[in-house]
């Protein structure tokens, strides 16, 4: 009985894995992932256009 449970559990986990891979690489998700990938760069200050006087006042 336990062997049957392990076999079913393995098949379910493999199906879940395949489903996640298909979801992650689907064309619908590309724009969502592209916008999420740019989140770390949204708060960066452009060093070329930054104010050098403001940097001196911070120490």
Keywords, separated by commas or semicolons:
single chain, 59 residues, mainly alpha, 63% helix
List the helices and strands and how they pair.
Blueprint: H1 2-24, H2 30-37, H3 52-57
Could you write a compact summary of the structure shown?
The protein has 59 residues and is mostly helical. 63% of the residues lie in helices and 0% in strands.
Descriptive overview:
The chain has helices spanning 2-24, 30-37, 52-57. The protein is elongated, with a radius of gyration of 24 Å. With 59 residues, the chain is mostly helical.
Uncertain segments of ≥5 residues (pLDDT<50)?
none
**Overall pLDDT score:** 83
Global morphology? elongated
Biggest sheet statistics: none
Radius of gyration: 24 Å
Number of strands: 0
Q: SSE order in H/E notation?
A: HHH
Summed up, the helix count is 3
Distance between the first and last residues' Cα: 70 Å
């Amino acid at each position: 009985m336990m062997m049957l449970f392990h076999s079913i559990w393995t098949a379910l986990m493999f199906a879940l894995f395949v489903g996640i891979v298909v979801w992650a690489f689907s064309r619908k998700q590309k724009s969502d992932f592209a916008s999420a990938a740019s989140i770390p760069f949204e708060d960066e200050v452009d060093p070329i256009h930054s104010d050098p006087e403001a940097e001196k006042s911070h120490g």
